[in-house]
Design brief:
Layout (H helix, E strand, L loop, with lengths): L4 E8 L2 E8 L2 E8 L9 E10 L4 E5 L5 E5 L7 E2 L13 E8 L7 E4 L3 E3 L3 E5 L8 E3 L5 H8 L2 H9 E5 L10 H20 L8 E3 L4 H8 L7 E4 L2 H13 L4 E3 L7 H4 L2 H7 L4 E3 L5 E6 L4 E6 L9 H22 L4 E6 L6 H15 L6 E6 L5 E5 L6 H6 L2
Length: 397
Amino acid sequence: MSKDGKILILKLHDRRISLLLNGNRVLSARAQSGTAVTVGDIYIGKVQNISRNINAAFIDLGEKYLTFLPITEATSAYVLNRKPDGSLKIGDDVLVQVTKEPMKTKLAGVTTRLSLPGQYAVVGIKPNSLKDGLQVSSKLNAAQQADFRELEALGQISERFRLIVRTNAGALDCMEPLLAEARELADTLAHILEIAPSRTCYSCLYRNKPDYAAFVENAYRSEYDEVITDLPEVYDTLLETCRRADIPLRLYEDSLLPLYKLYSVEQRLQELSDKKVWLKSGGYLVIEPTEALISIDVNTGKYEAGKDKEETFYRINREAAEMIALHLRARNLSGMILVDFINLKSKEREKELLEYMRGLLKRDPIPAKAVDMTALGLMELTRKKVAPSLAEQLRSR
């Protein structure tokens, strides 16, 4: 567990800000102004239209709040106003869960594969094609994975539902918190499925935790040792969750030195908006988000190369790779990312750099990977889109 890691939750201007700090670095950030529909909410929606050209169904969650559902999920849909037959039709009442926030011109995304996340486990509807309902995070070591698979209580839950043991469970000294949470999530999901047939269309059957609570749960427990907030309502909401997970929670009450000033939050957010990012070596990155992709250029800057330029450039590229992985997560950049590293003559060194970047991206809680080097020598990265970038969150109204 990090001795310098902290999660801050505070109000800045018209935004509630959640920050994961480790030392002097921002590992993750979230800005929320509050919306009626949030990721994780479960609704009975109505199919308004079906587009075969883009393999999508458009689901209305009420008050003409349209969302996007991949038509491939029709086979697993809970259709409530007729007998399900593996298809979707206009006018169907269907049980869906919000998976993605609206981004720019794109609608919010929904799924028919319901799931409820917790600090240590995720419980979801078990697909018919899934034989083993118990899955364990691949980021846990082999011994830990084996221990979780041998737990009879988890096996009983996974007979009914899909059960995923999260990375955070690896830090537990005993299994009881995991088992208690998994049972509670399974009971909640079973209740939702039970009451759905008796509820009217557009009903919200489940409200997800506030964004800051999800932020705490999704952070790796090894990256922070306390949660600090200056908002009494946030403190009250998190009190029970933090107590159960043995996470120190502190209400900051110094009116002379506000929490956002104590930790220079405005400056940190500004740094995460700047195009240029300096490296300790004197080199720098230029991060340019565009409509189609995100381009990142690596430059030597003030660094003076020694006799072995190839080795020097490789060291700068490794440092740049570390900073890129950090900023993808902190800025919540996603989609296709192209990185123009300093050119290396050695193909072997180029492969080493690619593997190094792959190792760095495995630490990201959101799926991200280094795909390959293009014919022009650019490194191609991808990162799953689950929410707008931090810059978009700060701009949205």
